[in-house]
Please model this.
Amino acid sequence: MNLSQLLIIGIPADGDLETVRALQPGGVVLMGRNADTPTQTRRLVRQINEILEIPALVCTDHEGGRVQRLRDGFTHFPGARELGKRGAQAVEIAAMDAAAELRGAGVNFNFAPVCDVPVHPDDTVIGDRAFSDNAIRAGVLAAQYVRGAQPSVLCAAKHFPGHGGVGVDSHLGLPLFSGSREELEPHLGPFRAAIGAGVCAVMVGHIAVPALDASGAPATFSAPIVGGLLREEMGFRGLVVTDDMEMLALDQEQSGENAVRALQAGCDVLLFCHSGEKAFAARNAIQNALENGGLSHERVQDALSRVEWAKRKIAII
Model:
């Protein structure tokens, strides 16, 4: 088993690819620190794939608006809220254009669309990144985004099961959705719509939902949320990606244990945007858990199979 295929890692600002060479991850995530123009991005992706045994999922956050990591030389698209005001056709065309531009630069996986419904009065992180604070409209537009983008790149609907009903930014602490299962339902609507449109991936947020998992574990570590709600109830069969495992919603002293818990819950790919050291710790912990019975070979093989499926879906292997 090539366990490193379960990891997506960031590239340092100085462009040092030694961690990529040593770890052989399944993917990389590009930030603004990594490249300025489409030409530079394409050159970097070529260098990455030259040192990998298996071509990479090359990922970025390209939502438009204030969350668009690749900017110089790329079309600067409006944020989802502004784009959504222009209607479903405008959303589809923008998604199509953005995806084609990304693929031309060597990027094959966009962490979009945002499917959150920002209704919490203390929301600080989603806001205009969402298509609408109306769940039905948000779902229609998210689905249209997927239809426009996915002929060129993979899409990830985020941040499951919804970051719009909480008042804490998961970069800074653990958000808690305190509502009932019934009150959560509108937040799930846009994800259902994206899944219905064929979205290839869902990104799970570090959000605790006691109505679904009384343990208080964030969704990233929750089998009832990932395996129960997303897989069984909602019927999602694609790739489940974690949000950045280096966010302060998670205990950063337990990178290895966190990786194992995420896989146990049903996540397939673990995202480490910054620290190569933490990514190595995750890989080693996964290996140890396989050897001592903490992780089943079936669960890991299931995740690896989805990574391979995703790479075949975009024709890089």
The mean pLDDT is 97. The longest strand covers residues 154-160. The beta strands are 7-10, 27-29, 57-60, 62-64, 67-68, 109-110, 154-160, 201-204, 239-244, 269-272.
